[in-house]
Amino acid sequence: MSFDIILDMVVITCLAATIAFAVRLNKKLSTIYKSREDLQEFLNQFTASMEKADAGVKDLKGIGESVFKAAQDQMKIAQVLKDDLAFLNERGEDLAGRLDSSISIARQLHKDLGDNAGGGGSSRTAALSSVQTRNEDGEPDLVRHLQNVR
After folding, report:
1. Radius of gyration of the CA atoms of the chain, in A
2. Residue 89 is part of which domain span?
3. Which alpha helices (H) appear in the chain, and where do they start and end?
4. Which of 52, 36, 149 is nearest to 98 (CA)?
5. Out of 7, 70, 127, 141, which residue is the most buried by the measure of CB atoms under 10 Å away?
6. d(CA 3, CA 12)
């Protein structure tokens, strides 16, 4: 065999190996390109999802701000109502105290009248005159006490 034939055989073998390697490389490159397309599709879907999430966050932020503002308004109204109720409660306690003292005075007067009624007619007249003692304006004390209740 001649040197030319051996050299041709070596070149043919190298070319066959190169062709086989190129075929394998082509398959891997087509897989990479297909994966690239899939990756691009995934990135597009991911971008769309991120945009939707961003819009959702903005909506939630707006809703949160409006709820917070409404809650603040309600708290202001509640504070005004609380102050009004505290005032009314204070006035009611004051009136209850005055009414209690007037009731105590009326009970005492009733007791005094009852005690004096048992002793005779003249003592009853004396008790009535003591109940009808007048203040400096000329009003009976009982009337003055009842007016204080108002």
Report:
1. 53
2. 3-149
3. 3-117, 121-131, 141-149
4. 149
5. 127
6. 14
Based on the structure, what is the number of domains in the chain? 1
Q: Which residue has the tokens 């891997």?
A: 28
Q: Is the pLDDT of residue 34 over 90?
A: no
Comparing CA positions, the residue from 107, 109, 112, 94 lying closest to residue 150 is 94
φ, ψ for residue 57, nearest 5 deg = -65, -40
At 140, give phi and psi (nearest 5°).
Answer: -65, 150
Take residue 51 and report the two structure tokens written for it: 């945009």
Overall residue count recorded for the chain in this entry: 150
For 56-71, write each residue's pLDDT tens digit: 999 999 999 999 999 9
Calpha distance 146→110 (Å, rounded): 14
Single-letter code of the amino acid located at 38: D
What would the pLDDT profile of 88-120 be if each residue is shown by its tens digit? 999 988 888 888 888 888 888 888 887 776 654
